[in-house]
From TrEMBL:
UniProt domain FAD dependent oxidoreductase: residue ranges: 3-350
Location of the BFD-like [2Fe-2S]-binding domain: 395-448
InterPro entries: BFD-like_2Fe2S-bd_dom, BFD-like_2Fe2S-bd_dom_sf, FAD-dep_OxRdtase, FAD/NAD-bd_sf, G3P_Oxidase/Oxidoreductase
The protein's name in its UniProt record: NAD(P)/FAD-dependent oxidoreductase
One of the Pfam families matching this protein, by short name: DAO
Amino acid sequence: MRDIIVIGAGVVGCSIARELSKYNLDVLVVEKNSDVSEGISKGNSGIVHAGYNEKIGTLKAKLNIEGNKIFDDLSRDLQFPFKRNGAFILAFSDEEMKTLESLKENGEKLGVEGLEILTREEALNIEPNLNKEIVGVLNVKTSGIVSPYEMTIALAENAAENGVEFKLNSKVTSIEKISEGYKVTLNNKELVSGKIIINASGLEGAFLNNLVSMSKREINPVKGEYCLFDKVAGAMINKTLFQVPNKLSKGVLVTPTAEGNLLVGPNAVEGKTLETSREGIDEILDKSKKSLEELPVARILNTFSGIRPKTKGGDFIIEEVEDAKNFINVIGIDSPGLTAAPAIGVYVVNMIKERLDLVEKKNFKKTREKIVRFAELSLEEKNKLIKEKPAYGHMVCKCEFITEGEIVEAIHRPIKALTVDAIKRRTRASMGGCQGIGCTLPISKILSRELGIDISDINKNSEGSPVIGFKED
């Protein structure tokens, strides 16, 4: 029997797993998809929120602010992309300026540092491409941008290096209470058991809660659609641009990404289908044009959507289920869940300390080395690496300058990349201008060779998405 089973390998589940890996525990993470960060964590804005607009006294406020402070050290230790670029909240009227004053006051009461109101002229001096119709802005200095999937992968790899086991392609189909804990069925056949269950399963959170408890939960999925622009567009601004938020969301933003692209979105549409719509994309483009003087729509690379798991109360639900001892819900983690994730890990481990005697590992490895970025090396370093490993001399993705050596390394990391999209999230191969037209097949061939399987069994992402629909002779 495992000490702890974490259900869900998104950024929250992996943050919890990494925090648990600091202790002498037998921890298993189960994930229904073929990779970590395949669900909510891959489809969001990638913003590290300051927390100025959260409601005083809520878990969201507490964990947002605590999580924000962890990012500098965590990104350095685990080597994932993070920049504290700051944010502007834009006001277009005197009434909205009053709202900015209220947001500033709320943030200061919560302990958020670096909040200041700037005049129109001061804001345009910093970001000259802003809409000239602004009246003023709230400058939020502690806001940042992060690659959410690279962060999740880094957390998972570090947890795995410290002894946590990950079972991918393992959907929880039933949970049964037993005398010492819980018996969990995976894919209707495999059984695993654990003393403590941590339900960090995102959109499945209510379903799993309802398997063990008479106190039923409900999660309402809200879709947000995005447009991703190229890096030329990404150079137009430095700060994340928000408009005055509403009750449903923080509004449509315009932001550089941690990798240098430009991202606009999201809107808010009830439902969990991931398809983007013409109406939705038109909506976010129209609203984002209010922030920037000119939006270069010709530089759109792709559109995508993500899902936010909303709950009736609006706050994070992080608690032991009343009628299911040692079953801990970590559900309803919508925005600012990405920011809060590292603090959620600490918070949940403190709950575990009340249930198990935890002994810290003497050999905990707190750092993780990222995949070599060939394009970032000096000429001398490149030549040296090619001599040692000739695969680094073969350019596979010409848009993002990704080599075969990087792809091979991604496949054989502690959390293996098993699909084309898993390679993309680790290396950026197929994220450039051609969006994979030129490199999807070469990547698939490398995956086939390294994994020892037929190329027809290589998927783009999850099961049932083969890159090639036939077997080669």
